[in-house]
Amino acid sequence: MRALRAFLHRLRGLFSRCADFDSELDSHLQLHIDDNLRAGMSPEEARRQALLQLGGLEQTRQAMRERSTLPWAETLAQDLRFALRQLRKSPGFTTVVVVTLALGIGVNTALFSIVNTVLLHPIDAPRPNDLLAIDASKPNFETGSISYPNFRDWQRDNRSLADIAVFRHQGWIMTGNGDAERVRGNFITSNFFHLLGVQPVLGRLFSAGEDEIGRAPIAVLGGGFWARKFASDPNVIGRSITLDGRDYTIVGVIPASFDFQYGAFLPEDIYLPIGQWDTKALTLRGAGLGIHGIARLKPGVSLAQAQADMNNVSDHLAAAFPQADRGLRASLRPLRQAVVGDVQPILVMLLAAVGFVLLIACVNVANLLLARSSARAQEFGVRLALGASRGRIVRQILTESTLLALAGGTLGLVLAAWGTHAALSLVPQALPRASHIHLSPPVLAFSFLISFATGILFGLIPAWKVAAQPPQTILREGGRTVHGSRHRTQDWLVVFEMAAAVVLLAGAGLTLRSLFALSHTDPGFDPNGVLRFSVAAPNSPAIDNPVGARAYLRRLDQQLRSVPGISAVSLTNGGLPMTGDDDEELFWLQNEPKPADANDMHWSLLYIVEPGYLSIMRIPLVRGRWFTDADREDTPHVVVIDQDLAREDFGNTDPIGKVINLTNPDDTQATVVGVVGHVLQWGLDNDAGFPLHAQIYLPLGQLNGWQLVSTTGFFYDVLVRAAHPDAVFADIQSATHRMNSAQVVWRPLTMNQIIDETLAARRFSMILFGAFAALALLLASVGLYGVISYLVGQRTQEMAIRMALGANRGDVLRWVLRRGAALAGIGVATGTLAALLVTRAMAGISLARSSIIYGVHPWDPITILSVVVVLMLVALLASYVPARRAASVDPMQALRSE
Amino acid sequence: MPDKSDVWQGTLALMVLKTLETMGPQHGYGIARRIEQTSGDRLALNYGTLYPALLKLEQEGAIVSEWGTSDNNRRAKFYRLTRAGRKQLGREARTWEQAAAIVARFLSPAEES
C-alpha cells in the first residue's frame, strides 16, 4: 500500500518536475552556514564545511531527482520521444513497416476473433466443460438417436450424471396468427434449458414432469420469434398458439441471444415438451426418431467414470430388452468436442497458416530495420564511442520497433474489423456461434499482445547485430561498406520468407485442387435443374383416411406439374441425397429366416419416391425397370435397388425378380424390379466415410394408406425438375396456395445450392488459405525487392567501377538478377521440401469424414510445380526492378559522388 | 543502490520519524543536527542522504512538509509527522528493538547462561 502510494507520487513526478529541491537545499546550506558562522568560522570556511557535510550539492540534487521520479520511465519517455522523431524523419520507411505489420496483425486478429468464439467459447453456458453430448451408439451409427424409453431409463438408472436432457428438431404449421406459416422448433425435455443455464426473459420454463406423455400442451417461445410474431408483447403469457391444428398455451419466452447449436439442434422459434410429440413411435424402445441428448457431469466425476457407469446401465437394459437394446450403448463425448468437432482441425490449420503470414511480415520488417540500422550505424557508433551503454542502444532500437509494431497493430485492428466482416460472409453454417464472432476484449488483448511480441521479435535481430559490433568497426566502416554478416542475415531472412511462401502456396493450391476435384465428382445424379422444397398441410377429416390422402397427393402432384417450366415432380419421404436427411430400411432375403432382431437384418438407405424421381434426378437405370404409375397400392409390391446393394446382397446373380422381405411397411414381401446407379448420399466427399451405402427405393404409391398422412397432417419433401429451378418457386407457392390456403411450401433450394453448402467448410478454408498464401507471396516478394534494392544501393560504387572498367549494362542486370534468383532459388528449394512434409500432415487433417486434401495427391506434382514457377517468376520480377535501376546508373556520376 | 545502504536508509527513516516525534515539526537541517546530537556525535551523517529519505517518507505518506520560517528567521521547509507516520514509527521501533535484542543475545552468550 505504502509502496503503491510512493509509486503514484513518483509517476506524477514524471510529469511535474518540482524546483522545490533547489530552494530546500539552499535553505539547508543557509541554516548550516549561519550555525558555522556562529561557531566562529570565516564566511568561506563556513560555506565550505556546510557543502562538505552535505556531500556535494549536485549529487544530492541528483539523488532527490531520482527519488522523486521513476528513472526507468524517464528513459523510456526519452526513448519514445527520440523514436517518434526518428520515425517522422523517414515517413516512407515508417509507412511500409506499419502497413506490413498491419496486414500481418490484421489477418491474425481477424482469424483469432473467429477462433476465440468458435473454438474457445463454442458453448455459452455455465461450466461448459462439464457438458456432454449423449447418443445411442448402435452397430451402424456411432452417435445414433436415443429412443424415448431408453432415455427415461438412462436418466433414472445412472449415478454419474447430474442430468440428461434430450431434444428433437421439428417443424409445424402455425395457423390463427396471420397467414398459415411454417415454424420451426424443438421438442425438449423440461430440464433442457436448466442444463444449459438458460433463464426465461418472460414467464417460466417447463417444470419437471410437464415433459411427460399426456400432459397439458404448453410452449416456450424463442426471443426472436416473440419479437417477430408478437412484437415482444409482455402479455403473451397465457395466450395460445396453434401448431398443426393444436393449441399450446405459451408459458415463457427465452432470450433472443440463446445461440446453442449442436447437431440438429438450432435455436428456433418454438419449444414444446417432448411428451407432446404425437407419434406412436415415441414409446417404442427400438425407434430411431432422431432424438439426441446433452448431459451434465456430476461435480468431481470424470468422463471415463461416467462412460463406465453408462455402459453398466446400457448392459442392464440390453439384458432386459434384448430385442431393442442388444448392442446398444449410451455413448458420451465432451459437448465442446461434439459442437466444434469438424471445424477444429481446419481452424487450427488456418491459425498456423496465418501465424506464418505474421512471421513473414516480421521478417520483412526485421530486414528493413536491418538495412536502416546499417545506414544508422554511424549514429550508433558515435553514441557508443561517447559512452552510451550497449543496453541503452538496444533499448532504443527495441523502443522504436515496439512503437512501429503498436502502430501496425492499431491499423491492423481496423483491417481485422473489416476482415472479420468479410470472412463471416463465407462462414459455413456449421460454424458454432458464428453470429457472436466480433472483436471482443480478449481479441483486442490478443492483438495487442502479438503486436508487442512482434515488435520485440523483429527488433531483436538488428538490435543484436548492433550490440555485437565493436564501435570502432562501425565508425571505421562509416556505415557505408557492406557488412558481410549483416548481409548474410538479410539473405537468410529472405530465403526463409520464400520458403514459408512456398509452403503456404502449396497448401492453398492443394485445397483449391481438392475443391476443383470435388466439383468434378459425379454425385450419381444430375443436380442441374433440380429444385427441392418442403410442403405441408394440416390434417383434416377429408384426408385423414387412405383414400382421401391418396386423392390429395395426386391432386398436389398435378397441381405442381401444371406449373410452367416444371417437367417432373416427385414427392419423397425418407432420405434425400446431400441434404443430410436419411432414412433406413431393414430387410432380409427370401432364402433367409427372419432375423431375431434389427442388428442381424440387412440395412440400407431408404428413399420413398414417386415415378417422376428417376427423370428428375437422372440416375442411370442399369437393369430392369423403374416405377410407373401402375405400381399402386393394389398391385404387387416392388422395389428398385442400387448397384451397391445388388453387389452386397446378390453378388453375381441377377437381382431382378428376387424377392426381399421389408420390415417397413410391416413385413411386406417385395420384388426387385430394377437396379439403378449408386448415388452419393452423404456429400461429394464424405460418402466413403459412412458405413452404410446400399440403397433401396420404394414407390410412395405402394405405402400403406395410413402411412401417407400423420395425425398432424401432410409433410413431404418435393423434388421437381424445372427449366429455371431458381426462379420457379414463386409459381409453386401460388399454385399450392390456390389448391389449399392452409398448405405451406418453404425452404426452396436448388440441388446445386445443397451440394454447395456441403462444400462450404472446404470453400471457407480454401478462400482463407488462399488469401493467406497470396498475402505471404506479396510480403515475401516485397521482402526480396527490399533486399535486392538495398544490395543495389550499397553496391552502386562497385557497379560503377565495373561499368567503368568495361562491363556493359546487360552484365550488371544479369548479375543483380542472378543474385535475386539465387536467393529465391534456395528459398523455393527448402520451401518445397518443407511443403512436402506439411502437405502430408495436411492430408491427415479431416473435414467431417474425408481429408482436407481430397482427390489429389498431397505431393501433387502439378500443384508443387506451379507454385515453384509462380514464386520464381514473382522473385525475378521483384529483382528486375532494382536490377534495372542498377543497370541505368551513370558510372561517372556514381563515382564522383564518392 | 547496494543492500547495505538500504539498511542504512531503513534506520535513517526510523531516526527521522523518531526525531520528528520528539521535536515536533522540524526542517531538514534541524533533523540532521538532532540525529547527530542524539547519537552523541558518534554518527557522522552525510546530510545529503537525508533529503532522498525525507522525500521517500513523504511519498509514502508518513510525513508532510510545508514552508515556514526558522528560529533565526530563515525560510525553511518543515516536516511534520502524520498519523500514518506515527503508526509506522511504532511498528518499526518495535521491529528494530526485537532485532537489536536478538543480535545482542548472540554477541553476549556467556552472560545469558
Brief write-up:
The complex is a heterodimer of chains A (898) and B (113). Chain A is 52% helix and 17% strand. With 898 residues, chain A is α+β, with helices and mostly antiparallel strands.
Description of the molecule:
The complex is a heterodimer of chains A (898) and B (113). Chain A is built from 28 helices and 24 strands. Chain A has 898 residues and is of the alpha+beta class. Chain A folds into four domains: 2-69, no CATH class; 140-326, no CATH class; 343-520 and 760-896, no CATH class; 530-724, no CATH class. Chain A has a six-stranded mixed barrel with strand order 3-4-9-6-8-7. In chain A, α18 (484-519) runs antiparallel to α27 (861-887). Chain A is elongated, with a radius of gyration of 38 Å. In chain A, 42% of the residues are buried. Chain B is an alpha+beta fold. Chain B has a single domain, classed as Arc Repressor Mutant, subunit A (Orthogonal Bundle), CATH 1.10.10.10. In chain B, 31% of the residues are buried. Chain A binds chain B through residues 2-3, 5-6, 9-10, 20-21, 23-25, 27-28, 30-32, 34-35, 53-56, 59-60, 63-64, 66-68, and chain B through 27-30, 33, 46-49, 51-52, 55-56, 58-62, 70, 72, 74-77, 88.
Name some characteristics of this structure.
heterodimer; A: 898 residues; alpha+beta; 28 helices; elongated; B: 113 residues; Arc Repressor Mutant, subunit A; 5 helices; globular
Cα separation of the termini of chain B: 40 Å
Strand content of chain A: 15-25%
Segments of chain A where pLDDT lies below 50 for 5+ residues?
479-483
N-to-C order of helices and strands of chain B: HEHHEEHH
CATH superfamily of chain B: Winged helix-like DNA-binding domain superfamily/Winged helix DNA-binding domain
| Total E-strand runs of chain B | 3
CATH class of chain B: Mainly Alpha
According to DSSP, the number of beta strands of chain A is 24
In the CATH hierarchy, what is the architecture of chain B at level 2?
Orthogonal Bundle
| Multimerization status | heterodimer
Number of domains of chain B: 1
The backbone outline of chain A, from C-alpha atoms, is elongated
Major sheet details of chain A: 6 strands, mixed, barrel
User: Total domains of chain A, how many?
Assistant: 4
